[in-house]
Write a structure and sequence with these properties.
globular; mainly alpha; 12 helices; single chain; 0% strand
């Protein structure tokens, strides 16, 4: 019986890189889970409070910033702790996930020298860790609502949709940060500084209404403004996001994710030479 002919790999007939990388990520989806579990264990292994720190940290930040800003903003923002926490939890998910993805370049390069691993699994694992953390962070928010007597609106059912939009946007930015950090060693430090500026440009500790009309264009150009609003509306205001707000948030999240994935996939072949 004649042996079957060997399958040949024709590099000239490769599928588009965006599809090839997507297939590779799906094939290695089990590794994403293992990396996420590893990162969670490493993060809390030597912590005194362990995983409870994820729930305590947002409360401590809320207390500090409430003491600082509540006196200044008490006439403009009712129940300031709830207002702040609804925005800061999801900003924290975005900031921590994107910065953590940028820090994964060294580990991904070390692993890829030994075996083939699509680099996208490291970005996906960073997003998975962020989802676990934000899920745990919702516990102190619920406790705060109960303690302060703040109503639990039925519009909370929209929160998973808001989280999906933030996840989509965060993954797109994380892909950009990971790709750039793989090429330039100072990107991660520069990005951390940029995140601090971005935080204060986003209405998390203040209400958008305090921004003078002549500067509102800068607010509307901030993509995180729309994403934070899609979360605050159902949780803090007890209302569903309007059609215009939801359309803007969806379009921004989808556009950033697609752009990030295309940029990442087109540069994937260069990681081996620049690692």
């Amino acid at each position: 019986m004649a042996p079957e002919p060997l399958a040949l790999y024709d590099s000239a007939n490769r599928p588009p890189r965006v599809l090839e990388e997507a297939r590779a990520l799906w094939t290695y989806r089990g590794l994403v889970v293992e990396l996420a579990i590893r990162d969670i264990k490493v993060r809390y292994k030597r912590s005194v409070l362990g995983i409870f720190w994820t729930m305590l940290a947002p409360l401590l930040n809320m207390v500090v910033l409430t003491l600082v800003f509540s006196t200044l903003l008490q006439r403009q923002i009712e129940n300031y702790p709830v207002y702040f926490l609804t925005g800061s939890l999801f900003w924290g998910f975005f900031a921590q996930t994107t910065s953590f993805a940028g820090s994964q370049t060294a580990g991904s390069n070390e692993t890829a020298r030994r075996i083939y691993v699509p680099r996208s699994v490291f970005v996906a694992a960073a997003a998975a860790v962020g989802l676990v953390n934000v899920g745990l962070s919702l516990v102190p928010l619920l406790l705060l609502l109960v303690v302060t007597g703040f109503p639990l609106h039925a519009t909370w059912i929209f929160v998973p949709v808001s989280l999906c939009l933030v996840l989509l946007f965060t993954s797109g930015v994380a892909l950009f940060v990971f790709t750039l950090a793989s090429r330039f060693s100072d990107v991660r430090e520069t990005y951390l500084v940029f995140l601090q500026l971005w935080f204060f440009l986003t209405p998390i500790i203040y209400h958008p209404s305090i921004i003078p009309a002549r500067y509102r264009m800068a607010l509307w150009a901030n993509p995180m403004y729309y994403l934070i609003q899609t979360i605050r509306k159902p949780v803090y205001d007890g209302a569903m996001p309007g059609a215009m707000l939801l359309a803007a948030a969806t379009a921004i999240s989808a556009a950033v994710f697609v752009a990030g994935w295309v940029y990442f996939a087109r540069n994937a072949d260069r990681f081996a030479f620049e690692s």
